Amino acid sequence: MGLSSFFKNLFGSTKESATELANSAESTLEHAKEAAAPYIEKAETFAEEAIEKVKEVSEPIIDSAAEYAEKAKETVTEYAEKATEAVSDVIDSVKEKAAALTSDDSPEVITENVVDVSEISDEEDGKA
Prior knowledge:
With 128 residues, the chain is an all-alpha fold. The chain contains 2 helices and no strands.
């Protein structure tokens, strides 16, 4: 019986210690919340002020970027129209030239035979 009473006392006192520790932790947590409340409010206020300042500072930059984007869009549109016209002109020119080459009215193509005279003949070499 001495061994069972030892374990009962051991686990019983451990249970009481755990309960006391939990109560102490809960109390400490409440104190920490109370102590941190002013700092949390200050941090929230600081964050709100910082966001407002960023909005104020970034507004002109955003407006400027929007203006720049609009100008870029106008320029690109202008050059796109010019490029479209130029490509269209090139296509028309190629079509005209292709039509001229494939039509029945085109002149006959004359081929010539070319002799390579770069080699020296036996007579010119002096061996004949």
